[in-house]
C-alpha cells in the first residue's frame, strides 16, 4: 500500500468466488477502484466465500484484475475466516432483544399474506410473535426434517433511506431480514455490514440492483453501533434482451473475450463507451486512463447493453 492511501477511508470490490467474472462484474470492480483512487481512499478486496465457491475462482479473479492493472492495497479479507466476528455481532443483537427464530420455508413466506405497504417478498412476520410452546413445536418439526430455524432481525418495519451519490435518496421498508440462515450460514446483510466497518469502508460502490439493500444495511449498522458508509450505485450491464448480463449470454468473461482476440485496450475502450465518455479526450487504454477520464457527476444512471463479439 502506498503512503498516499495509508490510514485513509476505503472502497472495496467483493465478488463471490463462484466462477469467472463477466464484463459487467469487471466494470463494477474497476469503477470501485477508480472511485477509490479519485477520492484518495484505499482500494480493498473481499472474498465472499460463505456460500457458492468454485475452487481457484478467487485467485483467478484477482489475477484478472492484476492483468488490468488493479492490485488491492491490502491482502484480501476472506469471509470464511471471520465467522467469530459475525457471531459476535449476532450475539449483540440477541442481547438487545432484536433476534428471533424463524421456522418458515420459502414456500411458507411466498404463500403468506403480505403486511400492508410492504414490498414484494418482504417477510410478513409469521414467527415474530409466537409463544414458547409454539416455538418448541416448530423446532421439533424442523428437527424431524433435519432442519434448523433461521434467525431474523426484529426490525421496526418502517421506511428507511440512504443518500446515494448517483441515485439521490433511496428509500425502502426494512423488514425482519435474515441474519443467519437455517443451514448455519451467516446472511449477506449481516456480514457486509460487519466487514465494511472492520476494514474502514466509508463508501460502497456496487451495482444498482443492490440499491434497495442499502437502507437495510444502514439500519443494521446503526443497531450495531457501526459507522454507515456512503453509497454509489452504478447501472448494470444488461444483455440484448434487457436482462442482467449472465455467462449464458455468450462470450462475456475476460477469459472468453481474450480468447476471441480482445486486448486490454479493447476492454477499456468498451468501458469508455459504455460509461458515456467516448470522445472525451483520447481513448482509454488502461485503468489509469479510467481514473483520469471518469467524472462521476456525469456518469449515466441508465443501464448499458453488452453484445458479445461475433464468433462467440
TrEMBL record:
Protein species of origin: Brevibacterium iodinum ATCC 49514
Pfam families: tRNA-synt_1c (PF00749)
KW Kinase (keyword) present: no
Protein name: Glutamyl-tRNA synthetase
Recorded family membership: Belongs to the class-I aminoacyl-tRNA synthetase family.
GO cellular component terms given for this protein: cytosol
Gene Ontology molecular function terms on file: ATP binding; glutamate-tRNA ligase activity
Domain Glutamyl/glutaminyl-tRNA synthetase class Ib catalytic: 12-269
Keywords: Aminoacyl-tRNA synthetase, ATP-binding, Ligase, Metal-binding, Nucleotide-binding, Protein biosynthesis, Zinc
Matches recorded under PROSITE patterns: AA_TRNA_LIGASE_I (PS00178)
Top-level taxonomic group: Bacteria
EC numbers: 6.1.1.17
UniProt key word Metal-binding: yes
GO BP annotations listed: glutamyl-tRNA aminoacylation
Amino acid at each position: 500500500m502506498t503512503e498516499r492511501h495509508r490510514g485513509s477511508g476505503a472502497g472495496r470490490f467483493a465478488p463471490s468466488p463462484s466462477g469467472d467474472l463477466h464484463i459487467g462484474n469487471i466494470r463494477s470492480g474497476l469503477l470501485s477502484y477508480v472511485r477509490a483512487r479519485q477520492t484518495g481512499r484505499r482500494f480493498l478486496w473481499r472474498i465472499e466465500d460463505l456460500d457458492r465457491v468454485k475452487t481457484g475462482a478467487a485467485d483467478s479473479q484477482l489475477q484478472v484484475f492484476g492483468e488490468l492493472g488493479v492490485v488491492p492495497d491490502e491482502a484480501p479479507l476472506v469471509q470464511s475466516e471471520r465467522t467469530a466476528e459475525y457471531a459476535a455481532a449476532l450475539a449483540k443483537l440477541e442481547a438487545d432483544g432484536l433476534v428471533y427464530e424463524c421456522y418458515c420455508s420459502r414456500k411458507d413466506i411466498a404463500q403468506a399474506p403480505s403486511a400492508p405497504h410492504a414490498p414484494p417478498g418482504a417477510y410478513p412476520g409469521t414467527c415474530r410473535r409466537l409463544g414458547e410452546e409454539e416455538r418448541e413445536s416448530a423446532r421439533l418439526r424442523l428437527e424431524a426434517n433435519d432442519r434448523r430455524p433461521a434467525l431474523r432481525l426484529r426490525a421496526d418495519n418502517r421506511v428507511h433511506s440512504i443518500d446515494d451519490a448517483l441515485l439521490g435518496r433511496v428509500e425502502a421498508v426494512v423488514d425482519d431480514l435474515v441474519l443467519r440462515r437455517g443451514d448455519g450460514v451467516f446472511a449477506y446483510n449481516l456480514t457486509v455490514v460487519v466487514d465494511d466497518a472492520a476494514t474502514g469502508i466509508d463508501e460502497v460502490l456496487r451495482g444498482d440492483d443492490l440499491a434497495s439493500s442499502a437502507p437495510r444495511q444502514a439500519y443494521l449498522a446503526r443497531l450495531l453501533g457501526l459507522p454507515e458508509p456512503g453509497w454509489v450505485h452504478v447501472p448494470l450491464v444488461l444483455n440484448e434482451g434487457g436482462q442482467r448480463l449472465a455467462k449464458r449470454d455468450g462470450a462475456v468473461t475476460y477469459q472468453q473475450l481474450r480468447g476471441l482476440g480482445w486486448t486490454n485496450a479493447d476492454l477499456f475502450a468498451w468501458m469508455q463507451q459504455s460509461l458515456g465518455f467516448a470522445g472525451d479526450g483520447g481513448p482509454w487504454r488502461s485503468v489509469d486512463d479510467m481514473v483520469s477520464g471518469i467524472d462521476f457527476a456525469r456518469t449515466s444512471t441508465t443501464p448499458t447493453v453488452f453484445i458479445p463479439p461475433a464468433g462467440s
